Amino acid sequence: MLHRAGDWKGVNEHIVLLSKRRAQLKQAVAALVKEAMGYVEKAPDMATKVALIETLGAVTSGKIFVEVEKARLTRQLAKIKEEQGKPEEAAEIMQEVAVETYGALSKREKVFFIEEQVRLCLDKNDHVRAQILSRKINPRSFDEIVKSEKKAALEAARKAGEDVRQMDLDAAAAMSAEEREKERAAKNANVEHAEGYYEATDPTIPQVEELRLNYHRLMIRYHAHNDDYLEMCRCYQNVMACDLVKEDEAARARAAKRAAWLGVLAPTSPMQQDLLHQISEHRECLADLPLHKQLTKQFTTKEIIHWDTLKEAFASEMAAETELFGGEKGETRREHLRARVIEHNLLVVGAYYKRVTLARLGELLCLDAAETEKRLSDLVVAKKVSARIDRLGGVVDFNPDSRGADWLLNQWVGKVDKLLDVLDKSNHLIHKEAMAHKVSLE
Questions:
Q1: Residues 6 or more apart whose Cβ sits within 8 Å of residue 300
Q2: I need a labelling partner for 366 at 20 to 30 A (CA). Which of 204, 259, 349, 437 fits?
Q3: How many Å apart are CA 150 and CA 388, to the nearest integer?
Q4: Residue 390 φ then ψ, to 5°
Q5: What pLDDT is stored for residue 231 in this prediction?
Q6: In whole angstroms, what is the distance from residue 178 CA to residue 182 CA?
């Protein structure tokens, strides 16, 4: 009656009044909240809409049987704040809800809620909290959601009396709108969420494949902040595995290019080399991208790479990758690429040379003596190469104690044992000669 009369202030007051009435049934409160949620989109202005959402949020707070409504109201309020240009307030509102503990919320809706929390944290540069929230999503849960939704569709079809023995999963999922509405109405009558009841997923929630793709894109944003190229490369590999990207040739090529660049930008390690081999040997990954295939091949082959030649050959490709080599971090990433080229060249030289002069090493790397020494020292400190520099002689020894400290200790012990054996044998012979010639050694 208050809603029909347009008395929005009275609506808010009576929502609170009826919910706080002594010995009020849970079913009555749940029905009250569901009814009032239908008025949110009918509010005459934004202020009235926000006031109604805040009232309903206060009523649903701490009540398990309306936790689904609490989550949806929180998401609505956060969206309004974000549209008003207040991302920090929106992030704080979303963080108040630990949606992973809501048993009545479907898995798909939970994942979407957590992704929104991560996105808002990244928007306000709160990367620590974004990392904590992202760990609540297991990448394997997307496949579990698909299986559970297909199973639910089959069960619903069986209940409707349909013959599902010859129906595939897609046909079973395509139930009539009337049947879905009946099922939803039956579920809405049940408010005992704690007894294993799951509320129907909000129809505005994206499908699983969209959520999967969005999750990996959010992880790319997070790892880009820390310049963790190896993890970014893995994320782009996962993006290429998404069905939505597989069907889009342009998106697949774009993801493959970035995966190749990020694999090259990552510091040299066995994992990085493995990723580069996976990317270069993938049938559909770089099949139509000969330049990027050549790039990955260069960094997986033990041959010297000339920086000037590489820079000139890939100048247009680097200019086109504005997301990687553009903006504030563009110049830094170009410098990182040059550092990876120098690192690769030093490892190649270390594999083929035992001793080389600093002048010759600088000539191979196209660097001056000071930078050559610095780059080599950085690799030695990082334990990626074993080398010693004779600065007076201007010689680099690439094989000093390359077999490690354990090997050196074993060698030392062996030599000491050999020395003791020689001493023992000499002592025995001396005593033998003394006894033969009857000479006293005292």
A1: 273, 276, 277, 280
A2: 259
A3: 63
A4: -90, 95
A5: 93
A6: 6
| Token pair recorded at residue 80 | 């309004």
Q: Which of 156-160, 351-355, 378-382 has the lowest mean pLDDT?
A: 156-160
Compute the CA torsion angle 88, 105, 217, 343 (nearest 10 deg).
100
Distance CA 221, CA 210 (A): 17
pTM: predicted TM-score of the whole model, two decimal places: 0.77
Distances (CA, A) of 352 to 174, 348, 368: 64, 7, 21
- Please, are residues 260 and 254 in contact by the beta-carbon 8 Å criterion? no
Please name the amino acid found at residue 409: L
CA contacts within 13 A on the Cβ side of 259: 29
CB 53 within 8 A of CB 40: yes
Instruction: Look at residues 362, 360, 393 and name the one whose alpha carbon lies nearest to residue 376.
Output: 362
Q: Are 441 and 434 within 8 A, CB to CB? A: yes
| Chain mean pLDDT for the chain | 84
Phi, psi of 290, rounded to the nearest 5 degrees:
-65, -35
For the beta carbon of residue 214, count every other beta carbon within 10 angstroms. 18
Residue 47 structure tokens? 């202020």
Percentage of the chain lying above the pLDDT 70 cut: 90
28-37, 76-85, 184-193: range with lowest mean pLDDT:
184-193
Exposure letters 70-108 (e unless 16+ CB within 10 A, then b): bbbbbbbbbebbbeeeebebbbebbbebebeebebbbbb
- Tokens representing 161? 């009396």
